[in-house]
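Researcher: Good morning. I'm working through a list of sequences from a screen, and I'd like to move beyond sequence-only analysis. For each chain I'm collecting a predicted structure so we can compare shapes side by side. This is the next one on the list. No need for commentary yet; just the structure.
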Amino acid sequence: MKGLSAFIILLFVAISVSAQTETETDSIDTSEFDKYLNENPYRFRPTQLIIPGLLIGAGFIGLESDWLKYTNNETKDELQEHLQKSGWTTSVSLPRWQQLTG
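Model: Good morning. Structure tokens for this chain:
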């Protein structure tokens, strides 16, 4: 009886060691999936936020900056002068409702 239990224990140890040393290759090929992850054009990259963030910031500064408003008005006035000197007309006929609201 003692020999039979030792044999069974030895058999289980041998099977468990054998099962742990066997390595099977996985049947699922993940190279296509990895390739898709690396080449996905719709993948989020934080650098995509730089230009929109700068444009939103410049717009906000433009709304609040007195210096920028002054520079904008000066530029418009200079363009008006040059266009009038060259003979171009800058007046646009607006509908009556827009003339009253402006």
